[in-house]
Amino acid sequence: MSTALEKWVEEQAKLTEPDKIYWCDGSEEEARGLIEIGMKEEKIGDTPIFTQLNQKNWPNAYFHRSHPTDVARTEHLTFVCHPDKETAGPNNNWMHPDEAKAKMTKLSDGCMHGKTMYVLPYMMGHPNSPYAKACVQLTDVSYVAVSMRIMTRMSKTVIEKIGNSENFVKGLHSVGDFDPDKRFIMHFPDENFVWSIGSGYGGNALLGKKCFSLRIASWQGLKEDWLAEHMVIMGIEDPKGNITYIAAALPSACGKTNLAMMQAALPGYKIWTIGDDIAWMNIGPDGRLWAINPEQGFFGVASGTSLKTNPNMIRTLKNNRFYPTLFTNTAINTDTNEPWWEGLDGEVPKNMIDWQGKKWDSSSGNKAAHPNARFTASIYNCDMLSKEYDNPKGVPISAIIVGGRRNQLIPLVVESFDWQHGVYLAASMGSETTAAATGLKAGVRRDPMAMLPFCGYNMGKYFQHWLNIGKKLSNPPKIFSVNWFRTDEEGKFIWPGFGDNIRVLKWIIDRVNNKVQAKETPIGLIPYLGDICLEGLDVPKERLQKLLEVKLDDWSEEISGVEKFLSQFGRYIPNEIIDENKKLAKEINE
Ligand code: GTP
Ligand code: SPV
Ligand code: MN
């Protein structure tokens, strides 16, 4: 007698018609075999799925070049298929589940001909955690199978855990023929099911990540009273050895990985990494918010990563505890067979091929690596991994940070007056668009909680959910907004960022511990100049003053932008959020 899982796999195989079905066990030996297959047998066009990189300087590292049209998330091809459009909300593309399934069935008919179907059993979260979820993804490419081994806790024990139950999250993935016109990422929240075709790119293809752990999980969280968020989780140890845990939401390519692995520039401070992209947060018996990272790896932006900006990530990428580490769409130094990207330390190599495999001409003005080139590395290769990472209960969160990439207006740091105002701060967030998603207009878009592309239901309801959770927390975290990205007249970043962001985190922790006062302004609480430690930093006080200034005259455009954004959610927007915006508008016009 076959189990529910076996039956489901059989059904999908009947539709997609693979030559072979291979059940993965998650072992290192298996990963080595999959890499071999990706180097020798599987190809995209004429390009092998994997090539080996310089093993001396980059142990266990392999390179993957994607299809040229398949380099980032495709939000316009991503759908959330609730039975009705309103539940999906104006923040999602919507299709009726029946229509979406009919469409996907057609596109998937025989799509795995000549290929192997890999069955990937994995956990999101520590297997002993009450918050963990058992999942199974099917895929037809070794790159996705190996990536999932790095990014999730993939193991055959998950199959035993699932047993004959239907209680597992399903993902059906095929790269199809990479045709962008036949590329869709469909979510079926009520069935815990994601169906994706036509793309091998991270957020479109590693279905445990954004698809399940945010879009589907946010819907589960709404029903079960918890939060699935696009957030870093980190511990900040002060010189006395006290560790404060915080969570931080920054939109895609706006600094989460860098924050989570920061080399703190203030003496005596040390960061402990727990997660760099996703946080699942539950209300603990003590009335605090407790967070786990459901993932097991980093799928990070390569561009800009260096010993100067993020030495801990460079070390992680060169560590060889967990096999393997992948580089996708970087350039390659053809003299040394090493990966390269803009911003990496050292001189620009003389002889390179660009991310598309063409000889790179340094005078062309073209970037050698794709701006969204990424690395995939296990969290166990990170030397600053918190000992709490594998704690099934997670860590208690004392502060939540939200922020965006804003070259003007938004101060370096603002503390909210209370939970409700904090939710408003998060709901009114905006950020300049980045290379992490294709086809977005340049400029600021509103991106509440960094969740606009990831909230699996109507965002108006999501704000209400946040307000409700706040009411259930007897000891809620304080909420802050940050902005590392203000620029000067020449377009240069004013704030040094990276390791120096500890100076802002220190102020945040000082506020959590009631150690310093703050200045009240209509937009929130701002640090007194002397309370941000500038020791050892070459930033004159006047520049810091600019980063902390609140010129009310400049705010009216922002506030009407927020009002316009919120109004599209109609009756779903909580009155409390509308009221906060009105209150601010009134104070500014006075
Ligand atoms: P996703 O993986 O897409 O969710 O991105 P992320 O939020 O983890 O962003 P990441 O840390 O990878 O940073 C994206 C880009 O922003 C990189 O090129 C970084 O070098 C740059 N960056 C990160 N932190 C800072 C900072 O404090 N200041 C400045 N100026 N740039 C930063
Ligand atoms: C993001 O875009 O926010 C990422 C990369 O973290 S992806 O996995 O594609 O979502
Ligand atoms: Mn992300």
Enter the CATH topology name of the largest domain.
Phosphoenolpyruvate Carboxykinase, domain 3
- The CATH class assignment of the largest domain is Alpha Beta
Q: Specify the biggest β-sheet.
A: 8 strands, mixed
What is the count of structural domains? 3
Distance between the ends? 74 Å
**Rg (C-alpha, Å):** 23 Å
Q: Overall 3D geometry?
A: globular
Strand tally, please? 32
* Number of helices in the DSSP assignment: 16
Q: What small molecules does this complex bind? A: guanosine-5'-triphosphate, sulfopyruvate, manganese (II) ion
What quaternary form is this?
single chain
Poorly predicted spans: none
Q: Helical residue percent?
A: 25-40%
Backbone structural class: alpha+beta
> How much strand content do the residues show?
15-25%
- The chain-level mean pLDDT equals 97
CATH architecture of the largest domain: Alpha-Beta Complex
Describe the structure.
With 590 residues, the chain is an alpha+beta fold. It has 3 domains: 4-60 and 68-224, Phosphoenolpyruvate Carboxykinase, domain 1, CATH 3.40.449.10; 229-297 and 388-576, Phosphoenolpyruvate Carboxykinase, domain 3, CATH 3.90.228; 299-381, Phosphoenolpyruvate Carboxykinase, domain 2 (Beta Complex). Helix content is 27%, strand content 23%. The strands form 8 sheets. Strands 1, 6, 7, 8, 9, 10, 11 and 12 form an 8-stranded mixed beta sheet that branches. Helix 11 (419-427) packs antiparallel against helix 12. The longest helix has 17 residues, at 208-224. It is globular and about 70 Å long. The structure holds guanosine-5'-triphosphate, sulfopyruvate and manganese (II) ion. Manganese (II) ion (MN) binds next to loops.
